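WARN retry 2 of 3 for item q-0093 after timeout on previous attempt; input resubmitted unchanged.
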Amino acid sequence: MPFDGLRILALESRRAEEIATLIRKQGGDPFVAPSMREIPLESNDEAFLFGEQLLAGAYDCAIFLTGVGTRLLWKTLLTRYDEAALKTALTALTIVVRGPKPSAALRDLGLPPNVIVPEPNTWRETLQTMAPRPETRVVVQEYGKSNPDLLQGLRAQGRHVETVRIYGWDLPEDTAPLREAARRIAAREADALLLTTATQVVNLMKVAEEDGIAPAVREGLSHLFLGSIGPTTSEALEDLGLKASFEPSHPKMGLLVNEAAQLITRKR
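OK item q-0093 returned
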């Protein structure tokens, strides 16, 4: 078997059982520590302001960055505004999606996107996709924390840009597994770490700082095989002075696990 009993850490939250199963199928010994949870913002003022502006015809382009954020935004808007009016207003816009998840969320609502940002679906591809487009009044559905590189890049293209954020990221309610993952990394009790989002890196280091083991965790990470789902996650590692061992051929969890199993075997 490709992993051949190696100790594989993952920090996946929503699909924790799935990634553990994938690792076992490749012969690995998984330890999956949920590292994050999506939390609704305390105030929905941004969402309702977006709804008002949308119905008033204030935008000619909407960029949706995440599937979860798209669904939560829609659910929030429906508490105040008429569904048919919202759909009419959105279909009058150019709808841009950053990859398959927001695309699927919108299609489920009967709102197929006009433009799909190509893989690996980062802010860089989003800017490249927008560069030749004529729309000047843009609203961006954000996720977790704001992406200043994307927003500044859009403004540098001569656009008026507004944002709407409907949820943020926080540590999981039970941080014990994540703290155990940090301890194992610091103690060199793992062989690989597979990462599916940049926030996993941030939250891992957050609990490491709280537990006073951040330097040891950073040093431990430098000795692990680090699988990164894509460029944004790799950049989070680079912020720590680390380099991803590899990125999969496409930013999908199954490919991350399967290709890591093949590659780590060749490196041993």
